[in-house]
Structure formats: structure tokens, C-alpha cells
Amino acid sequence: MASQTSQGNTKDYNLRIIDMLYSQVPAFTDVFDEETWYVFVICFVAGTFLVAFILSRFITIKPVE
User: Is residue 64 part of a domain?
Assistant: First the structure.
């Protein structure tokens, strides 16, 4: 019986922690509107291509013989 009570308290505590963290993180619509989302995606994709290009100059894959 005592294990069920402590398990219930732990579950309530976990839910309160999750709720507290969720309330601290801004919503997607608070951070981005349509225009800023597109700008972010374009910059992220361009940055990914740039990093991949730069790394491809230093990393070579050799076939296994």
C-alpha cells in the first residue's frame, strides 16, 4: 500500500515538473511568424550545406579493400 502512495506522489511530482518546464518554454508561434520561419529555414539549410562542403574538403572516405 505504501509503494502505491509513494508512486502516486512521484507521478504527481513528475507531472508538476513537466508542467513547470512546459510553461517556461515559449510556444512555436511566440518565437516564429511565417516570415521569420522561412528566413530561419533558409539560413539553416544554407549553413548545413556550407558545413558539409567545408567538412568534405577535410574528410575523405576510402574504399575497404
Answer: no
